[in-house]
Amino acid sequence: MKKELLTEWLQGRELVYSFLARIYQDGPAEDLLAALAGEKFLEELAASSRNEELAAGCRQMQAALMTRAGDLEAYRQELQEDYNRLFVGPGHLEAPPWESVYRSKEHLLFGEETLAVREFYRSFGLESKKKNREPDDHLGLEMEFMARLSRTAAAKVQAGEDATEFLQGQRRFLKEHLEQWVPALCSDIQGAARTEFFRGLALFTRGWLEADAAELEAVLEDFCGGEKS
Hints:
The chain is mostly helical. It has helices at residues 3-26, 30-38, 41-48, 52-67, 72-88, 99-103, 112-123, 139-158, 164-192, 196-224. The chain starts with a helix and ends in a 5-residue tail after the last helix.
């Protein structure tokens, strides 16, 4: 893959992972919804993707936003209520956004999975910006980690340096962490969400991870002969 194309691909991945990081951490912020409604991010991603779930999720989110574009603030409040029910509380959470809840036998926070994620961040010289305030294995933070590795890899490629370590790190993080629990989380979101936007986001998220893992494997095969990390 040529340097320019690889850089563009990495920057595109950073954009998507940054979007997912923000929506899962901060919820349906007014500026984010306005940007989604006014730009063609979802439309273009749906058109360019071969993954059916990703494309369907993009279209579902876009349609929901367009339907309510005239009263976006009222819709934002509805989405915030749904977001709180799903991910924040108070009370029972329909879709707890932490890896350890899905992967530990006790379904509790701060399990060994949380510490494994923290160590993975540390192996790349990073730590959660919410360390000691939010478990490191929150989905938004895991998505942010992927965005940061994409950004670093793009900078390496642009500088003519080797980005293999960061691509392989992303492949490992997908296989060892995100792919191990996010599909189940997305199923819970689909079953419990009261808004089309969040049902679409679940499809978007699951489809994106599946599509990205496949593309990353292909790029690594081309970029470094498929060398395993």
